[in-house]
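In this supplementary section we document a worked example of the pipeline. Step one takes a protein sequence of length 173 as its only input; no multiple sequence alignment statistics are reported here. Step two produces a three-dimensional model, which step three serialises into C-alpha cells for compact storage. The input and output of this example are shown verbatim.
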Amino acid sequence: MREFFGVNSSWYHSAGSFSDAKEVRRAINAVAKAIRRRQKTVRGVDARLALRLDLELEQLTAAAKGVKQNGVGLLEVVAHLIELCAVLLGYDWQVGEPNRELQYSQSIEQVAVDDMKSGGRVYEHAKGIESKRAEVIVHLHGTGSSHAHIALVMNISEQVVKDVLVRSGQTTR
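The serialised model returned by step three reads:
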C-alpha cells in the first residue's frame, strides 16, 4: 500500500487492519483505483493493454467483494493479482510469453527525487561528474595516451574509455 499511497497516507502501517475482510476489500478497491488513475498518465499504453488492464481490475474488484472474514475468496483475489502482474509485465495469456516490451524511464525531476530520497547524488551533480570524466578522457587521448593507459589512470574499463571516445567523435569502433 505504501508504494501506491506513500508513507504519509492512512494506509501506512495498516497491516493489522487486513485481518478484517472489509478492510481488505477497501484496500483492493483503493489500489485498483490508483492503478486506473496511473494508467491514464502512462505513455505508451496501447488500446489492447488498456482494455486488458481494465478487465483485470474489474475482475479483481469483483473478486474482492467475495472476500469473507474466514478467508473465503482470497484465493481468487490472489489469482487476479498474479494475472494483473502478468499483464503489467507484458505477458500474453494466449501464448504464455511476453508479447509487449516494457520501457521504464524517469524524468530528470523523478531521478533527482529518487537520488535525494536514497541519499545518493542528485542527477545534475552526477551528470557534471560524467561530463568532467569525458573531458579528461578526451584530453588524455589527445596527448597520445592509449586506451589501456587511460583506463588504468581513470580506474575504469577500456570499454568505458572507448565508449566515451566514440560518443565524443574522437575515434570509431
